[in-house]
Design brief:
single chain; five-stranded mixed barrel; 39% strand
Length: 98
Amino acid sequence: MQLAKVVGNLVSTHKNEKLRGKKLLFVQPLDEELVPFGNELLAVDGVGAGIGDTVVILNEGGSARMITNATSPYSPIELCIAGIVDSVQTENDYKIIK
């Protein structure tokens, strides 16, 4: 699991049948200081997230399919959004996200 920020939507008129009805979002991974790093990733939304939300992403196919209620174990889902973050507390800091 990792923290990320939702930075965009993907609109697709044609997609795999097993992804019909699933929202696809671009997410930007965040480091421990909530600073963006690395490349943006494409995730299937499992919780109703939107642009600007800080989220928990899960990069494991089987669990991602469970979180997004995929109807088939063969759904092409590797990365999903598993939660929306309200605040982060560490040893040294406390941050309210919204």
